[in-house]
Amino acid sequence: MRFMIPTNYTFLDCGYGKRLEKIGDLILERPAPQAEWEPRLSAEKWQEARARYVRQGNQGHWVFTTEDSETLSRDFYFKYGPVSMELRFSENGQIGIYPEQLPNWVWLKETIRDCGRELRILNGFAYTGGSTLFSSLGGSEGKEADVCHVDASKSAVNWARQNRDISNLQDQTVRFVVEDILRFMEREIKRGRSYQGIILDPPAFGRAPGGRTWVLKKNLPELMDLSIRLLGNDPEFFLLSCHDPEITMEVLAAHIASLPGVSPGEVETLNLELPSTEGNSLPNGIAARWRRGK
What we know:
single chain, alpha/beta, 7-stranded mixed beta sheet, 27% helix
C-alpha cells in the first residue's frame, strides 16, 4: 500500500484465511476469512511475522516469536503524516485501526479543507478515531471542523482521545461521547441540533447497550432516517461504509441519494481494499460517499 504522504503501514499479502501486514519494522499475521485463495508471497516471507493471531474454535490469542507483547508494544503506532494512532494486540485480534479506510480518511480531510466554511461533523461507530482525527485536520485557518465522536464502547472512546493527544491535536474541537449512536441521534434531534457532515462505519452485527442486538440490514433504514433529520438544510458531505457482504454498493448509494439535496449521480461508490504491490490484495468492505459540488 503506497500513498503520497509517508506512512509506516504496508499491506503485504493474504491467503488461506490470513493477512500479512507490516507496521514500522513489525510484520504481523492476522485472520482474513474472506481470503480463500493461495498466498502469493513465499512461505519464508510469511515466517517473518513476529506476532500472529491464532484461532482455536471460537477463541483466539496472540503468539509472539522473538519478543513478548510488552516489548513489541513499546513503539506500536500507525503513522500517516501528522496522525499517530497507538496500536494494541487486542484479545479479538484487532489492533486499533482499519487501514482500508485510509482513502476515506484522506477524502474527509480534503473535503472539509476545501469547503471553506465551519462544519459540525458527526462521526458514529467512531472506534479509535481515524475519521475523527483526519476530519479535525481538514479544518482550514479560521474555519474549524467541530467533530462529535460517538461510540458505545468506553474503552474505544478513551483510546480515540489518547490518539488525539499523541497526534498533537488537542487544540482541535472534538467532543467525545460514549453512547449508542441511534439513541444519541434521537436526542440530538430533540435538542434541535444539526450537522453538515456525517460519517458512519457500522458493523454488520453487534451488541448495543442494554442487551439489544445491532443488525445492519435491519437497522440501516432507521440509521439513515435519523441521518436525514440531523443533516438539516445545508449538508456538505456524507460517508457510509459497509462490511456486510449481503449489502451492495447500489443499496448504499440509494440510501445516500435519499438525503436532502443529493441526486443519484452525485454519489460515489468504492471498494475498500488493502492493495499489495507484490502479494494479493484484500477486499474488505465497500463505501458510498457524497460531497456538495463546488
